[in-house]
Amino acid sequence: MESILRGVVVYAFLFLIFRIAGKRTLAQTSPFELVLLLIISETTQQAMVDSDHSVTNAFLLIMTLVGLSIALSVLKHYSSTASRWLEGLPVLVVRDGRWDKRTADKMRVDEAEVMTAARTSHGLERLDQVKHAAVENDGTISIVPRDGS
């Protein structure tokens, strides 16, 4: 029972930390972030298993973590409030062709990243050709071009 409780607590803690860290944290993994992720995974593993390194304990933890993932996906499917809380909503950093510096700073996105997404997805060259740009739930940037662009 202790392993299940440890698994649930670690899952909730990591979920909260990555939710607080923001959408862009896991969207683009640099070598530094990959090393950090590996260290986090090792630390998490040690916190969950304590001194019990048995196969039974490993299976129990895997079932607990997968079960939590399934339960949260079902909750998100049936509750829009839970979905918004767990996943968040897309955040506009360009509104009607205007750069929203405050929101962009909060999302840790710069204009060059938005323009890269605009060029890649729609061949746009200038910010005034972008009607809306949003940081999506997964940290990617989506672009809605202006009509006629």
TrEMBL record:
<keyword id="KW-0472">Membrane</keyword>
<keyword id="KW-1133">Transmembrane helix</keyword>
<feature type="domain" description="YetF C-terminal">
    <location>
        <begin position="80"/>
        <end position="147"/>
    </location>
</feature>
<protein>
    <submittedName>
        <fullName>DUF421 domain-containing protein</fullName>
    </submittedName>
</protein>
<comment type="similarity">
    <text>Belongs to the UPF0702 family.</text>
</comment>
<feature type="transmembrane region" description="Helical">
    <location>
        <begin position="58"/>
        <end position="75"/>
    </location>
</feature>
<dbReference type="InterPro" id="IPR007353">
    <property type="entry name" value="DUF421"/>
</dbReference>
<keyword id="KW-1003">Cell membrane</keyword>
<keyword id="KW-0812">Transmembrane</keyword>
<dbReference type="Pfam" id="PF04239">
    <property type="entry name" value="DUF421"/>
</dbReference>
<dbReference type="InterPro" id="IPR023090">
    <property type="entry name" value="UPF0702_alpha/beta_dom_sf"/>
</dbReference>
